[in-house]
Amino acid sequence: AQSVTQPDIHITVSEGASLELRCNYSYGATPYLFWYVQSPGQGLQLLLKYFSGDTLVQGIKGFEAEFKRSQSSFNLRKPSVHWSDAAEYFCAVLPEVGGGGNKLTFGTGTQLKVEL
Amino acid sequence: EAQVTQNPRYLITVTGKKLTVTCSQNMNHEYMSWYRQDPGLGLRQIYYSMNVEVTDKGDVPEGYKVSRKEKRNFPLILESPSPNQTSLYFCASSSPGGARGYTFGSGTRLTVV
Fold first, then answer.
1. Cβ–Cβ under 8 Å, residues B35 and B48
2. Interface check A31 vs B, CB under 8 A
3. Cα A55 vs. chain centroid, distance in angstroms?
4. Of the residues A47, A64, A81, B107, which has the fewest C-beta atoms closer than 10 A?
5. B41 to chain A: nearest residue by CA?
6. Considering only CA atoms, which of B34, B35, B16 is closest in space to residue B81?
């Protein structure tokens, strides 16, 4: 069965510093990959997604992620963090069409704290 | 505006009192799903539906029921809620395959006392 690992439960960074959130997946093929953000008391917002092609994908709010097939990873990055980025971040995987239906499997999340 | 609407946003209930959380989407999506979110566990799928009258269990279906009589609606039913069902619930919908991404509702915070 597919699984997603986010090894960092909590991360604290200073405002203006760079950020990298780690995500590793376990799946037989290359799945579709997503990053979602959940601000306090809010629902889930899609930051970016990877299906194929260029392994560096750009998302909203200045985020980007890089797919590395050899490492089964899809790490999220931001060059300069803003205080408003404090939130919980979820990595998620979706099997390719026909390879398991529509089931979106989430990691356990990384809570980001930004120090001013 | 394309959206998934859940109601209520907050609900406190007592053990054993049946409740329904409604979910409606206006995107004509075939696929709908319910997740629960618990600290340290991320989001886990409860039930999903591939289309009208087609539903199936997800990873944590015990204690829940769903129905899909219309394409736009996918209610979550707790016939006899228990305290271990205290959680944050999300409804989501997507087009077939999910490749365009899921659209999530705003969540329902359920407390069972």
1. no
2. no
3. 14
4. A64
5. A108
6. B16
CA angle B50, B51, B57 (to 5 degrees): 45
Using the Cβ of A94 and the Cβ atoms of chain B, whether some distance falls under 8 Å is answered with: yes
DSSP state of A95: P
- How many beta carbons lie within 10 A of that of residue A12, not counting itself? 11
Digit-coded pLDDT (tens) for B19-68: 999 999 999 999 999 999 998 899 999 999 989 999 999 999 999 999 99
Please give, one letter per residue, the 3-state secondary structure of A7-75: CCCEEEEECCCCEEECCEEECCCCCEEEEEEECCCCCCEEEEEECCCCCEEECHHHCEEEEEHHHCEEE
Q: Which residue has the tokens 């206006």?
A: B26
Closest among B102, B82, B109 to B31, alpha carbons compared: B102
Q: Give me the residue label for tokens 């990595």.
A: A91
